[in-house]
Amino acid sequence: MFTSLRKYKGTAPKLGAKVYIDEACVLVGDIELGDDASVWPMVAARGDVNHIRIGKRTSIQDGTVLHVTRKTPAKPEGHPLLIGDDVTIGHKAMLHGCTVGNRVLIGMGAIILDGAVVSDDVILGAGSLVPPGKVLESGYLYVGSPVKQARPLTEAELAFLPQSALNYVILKDEYLAENQQA
């Protein structure tokens, strides 16, 4: 059904229940997606030299690039890409060998580099750059290039984070229903 899923060295992407993968994206190698995740047009995700894990109800928006860093003698684990549950990743973001917690909103065009950690309950502003190894503390808005902590999130923003993920679960369900009728 999904021609956009490709094996690398015998390992193919694994999908949880009710996952939506757009035909116009490419997922290669050691990638696992949790239940109700969605991957939209023109996403490129390569789990070739390390692995990618994407949590439940997480949405990867159009044009996003997901990649990893190779394991080496100096860094035996390399840098896999780990994305938690209820994460909304905006259009044209780039995530490379980083860790993203749960209930995170990553703005359009944001870049997160090797070894960076975005803790739970964070909003990362559009166009922000998270340098290698930087840790973003839970409960804050971060903006800029390089990123800086701007302010604590409001109660309304914290409540919006799981709602944002749910909005994309609803949308991907509509896409799945439409494709079943075609």
Give a concise summary.
The chain contains one helix and 20 strands. It is an alpha/beta fold.
3D architecture notes:
β19 and β20 form a beta hairpin. The strands form two sheets. Strands 1, 2, 4, 6, 8, 9, 11, 12, 14, 15, 17 and 18 form a twelve-stranded parallel β-sheet that branches. The chain has an eight-stranded mixed β-sheet with strand order 3-5-7-10-13-16-19-20. The chain has one domain (5-181): Hexapeptide repeat proteins (UDP N-Acetylglucosamine Acyltransferase, domain 1). It is globular. The chain has one helix and 20 strands. The longest helix has 27 residues, at 155-181. Helix content is 15%, strand content 37%. The protein is of the alpha/beta class and 182 residues long. The two termini are 13 Å apart. The model has no long low-confidence stretch (mean pLDDT 96). It has one helix spanning 155-181; strands spanning 5-6, 14-15, 20-21, 26-33, 38-39, 44-54, 59-60, 65-67, 81-83, 88-89, 94-96, 99-100, 104-106, 111-112, 117-118, 122-124, 129-130, 135-136, 140-144, 147-152.
